[in-house]
Specification:
The complex is a heterodimer. Chain A is an alpha+beta fold. Chain A has 13 helices and 16 strands. Classes of the chains: A alpha+beta, B alpha/beta.
Chain lengths: 393, 275
Amino acid sequence: MKTMNNAVIETRPQFVLERSDFNRLIEILHEKGYQVLGPRLRDGAIVYDELESGGDLPAGWTDEQDGGTYRLKKRNDEAIFGYAVGPHSWKKFLHPPQVRLWKARRKDLKIEVAQEEQPVSKKAFIGVRSCELHAIAIQDRVFLQGPYQDPFYKLRRQNAFIVAVNCGQAGGTCFCVSMRTGPKVTDGFDLSLTEVLEDVRHYFVVESGTELGAEVLAALPHNAANEKEKTSAEEVVKNTAAHMGRAMDITDIKGLLYRNYEHPRWENVAARCLTCGNCTMVCPTCFCMTVEDTTDLEGEHAERWQKWDSCFTTDFSYIHGGSVRSTAKARYRQWMTHKLATWIDQFGISGCVGCGRCITWCPVGIDLTEETAAIRGSEAPGRKEDPHGNGNT
Amino acid sequence: MTHPMVPRLWWITRRRRETHDTFTVELKPSNGSSEFRFAPGQFNMLYIWGAGEVAISISGDPNAPGSLIHTIRSVGAVTRLMQKLKSGDEVGVRGPFGSCWPIEQAVSGDVIFVAGGVGLAPLRPAIYHVLAQRKRYQRVVLLYGTRAPADILYARELERWRARFDAQVRVTVDHAAGGWMGSVGVVTHLIARARFDPARTTAMICGPEVMMRFTAMELEKRGVPAKNMHISMERNMKCALGLCGHCQYGPSFICKDGPVFSYERLKPLLAIREV
């Protein structure tokens, strides 16, 4: 597994693509047989959906984000990636909300199961942020590196072409700098872009991360970037890094949460949490799913589906006799402890990439950076044991 | 590549009523293929047409892989339908999954099995194995507690094991009407009367969580080291592959890291509510 954290950033050749030539990228990907997916305006938000052409991109729009707040706003320029991240993540394409796994028919009490044929569909993702690349890498660990693999996920993953973007602006709930997941894209992309807006010029500094990326770039009008253009691109990322909306102290975060299963703060947050599950739906790494078995009315055909699930429902932990986590306190604690602590033991990496979606899309503005800080700031003295006996990361 | 969520189909060849809510099914593969190899303590995902899938421990003899045996208590929507299964019906099987009882680690020491209710079913393969290889172990103790005399699982087998000169088998019930001349009380009360050498005893415990916890605490008082005690955990399970997230228990996935865990590993978490 490639680790993107603290990776040595190799210098890749940088090129310049003018804004006027950018729409050509989408055309080329279409010509190569890709369904092109990227940001566009819908329902008062910037969402990820199919792009017919460059005209679908949210040029000149940005978003304002804070706990429980998301608002679109016009920019003073025509930036096409001038927003942070919206309610969607690429998870909806790589780990879709609903997947049929198999169909079966029964005749004369004899059952025949036929695995769902997965159409090989090539998808190109335009505008993948660094935090999102890390989120994809995290889901790769979940679905591809355990004792059992999800072969459908693998197929979707293999057929994805990734055009990453270095963030030109930090959102109000962003904290990728704390999580060491951005804002600079370092790895895991086919092409990466930095959008540069100058007084009279609008262009992109481009790097290719794979041979396929280089091939697509070669088909686009481009020039080698000069020092000034490279410096301008670097400044964009530096400026973003300096303006994070949030920060989280992750020092021994695993030990902190393992030691504080009984911290009174959980009661405090439970009094605000609506257990709606929004945070799990918008989270780009939350992978939990349920399995549904159904039949048609005649009882001759059956299907199995996997669907996104949320640890905030009481059904999630139901075993005969009741739910294991019946209180909101237990469910919030499960989510946050999983995200920031037990995930590290399970997959060798944190489950949080600092994208801030769970903060923005929480209807009551619960902020995990605030919750962890509250626990850290009021840890009972002498509470030095953790129930897993391995507190230090 | 076959998706690991696709079940294989098995016929029910025998169905036996165990108690009013518990029954045992014996399965053979529908396509006539091979044996079913598993380790004691492992489980399968059983699918019943259209209704759903449930995790059920394997309760047959690991050294007789010709048939697959499951003892099921009907407590939910899927298991209640399973209670209606009869010979010739087809079910889907995925497995075997999970960790197993420490039957090798226990060799040349004393072994104590403590079971509560239907918790005897996941322990039965380990009991079969230990009794079949009786000479490799020192003392063998089986303590079984259940609600009432009518709920005693595998009663005939318990009687047979109890008749052996090389095993201590004790049964207790929580409550009983007249006519029951056996022991009444919780299973932990039987521990004091069992003879074993705590320092070199391996304990395998299966039953409701609270029963396992109190049993382990009692055994610990007798001097059995926490690392030599093993318990089998139950949580909601949807995939058994470590992919659906439902069976998480702190950092563990019950399906792939368990269901059998050393008590030492889980002890601190067991004391916390609603983990």
